[in-house]
C-alpha cells in the first residue's frame, strides 16, 4: 500500500514522505476549518438556510480535495473563497436581485466557462494578458473588503451621523465581545499558534456566551433536519438564465474567479518549487468551482491557507486528500457550528483581510499608469460593496491610460478585449 501511494503521488521525487504529507494535511485542516463557520454565515445572508450552507461548504471542500489530490497532485486546499462568498451574497443576491438558487446557477455556469479556459490555451493567454499590478490589486481590494465586512459584523463600525461610518460603542455587548476576541485572535496569530483561527472561534464563542449573546437551548431545537439539508445538492435554479442580469452576474463572477485563481495557483506551486504542477492544479480548481454550484455553495478557490500545509512539508496531493477526509468528520458538529456568533467570526475576517492587504507592497508607485488603475480597484471594491464593479473600473482604465500616454503597445490585444467586455458589462449593469 505504501509503495502504491509513493508511486502514485511521486513522494520520493517530491522529496516528501507519507508521514510528512499526513501531518501537513492535518495542519492545513486546522488552519482552514474555520471556513465552515465563516462561509456558512456569509452565505446565510443570501437567504440560504445555514444548514444548507454548512453541508454545501463541507461537500465542496471534500470534492475539491479529491480533485486536487488525484488530478492536480498538489498540496493546495480548495475551499469556498473569502471575498468570493461576499460577492455571492452581497452582490449577486442582495445587489443584483437574484435568489440564492439562481446565484448557485451562476456559480455553475461560471465554473463551466472557467473549466473551458483552464483546459485550453486560453489559460496561458489570459495569465499573460493581465498586468501584474491588476492581479495584485484584486487581492488587495478583496482584503480591504473582508476587513470592512469583519468590522461591520463585529459592530465595530456602522452608519454614522454625518459620516460614512462611525465607531461602535464598547457599551454594546457585541462590540465588547468582538474587541476581546480580536485581541485574543491577533495574539494567537502573531505567535503562530497551530490552529489559531479554530481556537479563536471556540474561545470567541465562549466569550459571547458570558456576555449573554448565545442561547444554548438552540442546540436542542429541531430546526431544519440536518439530513434534509442535503437537498441543497442540485438546488440551482436556471429560471432567470435568459435575463441580462444572469449573464452580467456570470461574466462578473467568471472574471473574478479566473484572475484570482491564476494568481493564487501560480504563487502556490512556485512556493513549493514545482511550477510544472500549475496546469493540472489550475484545471482541478476550475472543475471544483463548477461542482460548487451543484453542491450548494459559493465557488471554491485555491485558499491562501494552503501555505500553512506547504510550510509544514506538504508537497503532493496526499496533503489535500488528508484535509478533505478530515472535513468529512466536521459534518458531525453542525449543531455547534450554528450557534457561533458574529463576534467570533469578525476578528478572523479582519485578520485575513489584513494579510491580503500586504500585497499592496508589490505595486510600483513610480508609474501611475500602472498604479492608479490598481488603486481604484483597491478602493472601489469596498466602497461600492461590489467586487465586480471594482475590478471592472480598473480593467477599463488601465488601457485608456496606456493609450493616452502613447504606451498602447504595452497592452496586450486580449486585455483590450477584456476591457471592452467589462465596459459593456458596466453599461448593461447601470442601464439595468
TrEMBL record:
Pfam families (alphabetical): Xan_ur_permease
InterPro entries for the chain: Azg-like, NCS2
UniProt keyword annotations, A-Z: Membrane, Transmembrane, Transmembrane helix, Transport
Record's subcellular location: Membrane
Membrane topology listed for this record: Multi-pass membrane protein
Record field: transmembrane: 21-44, 50-70, 77-97, 103-122, 134-151, 163-190, 197-216, 236-259, 318-337, 343-360, 372-401, 413-431
Family named by the database record: Belongs to the nucleobase:cation symporter-2 (NCS2) (TC 2.A.40) family. Azg-like subfamily.
Entry protein name: NCS2 family permease
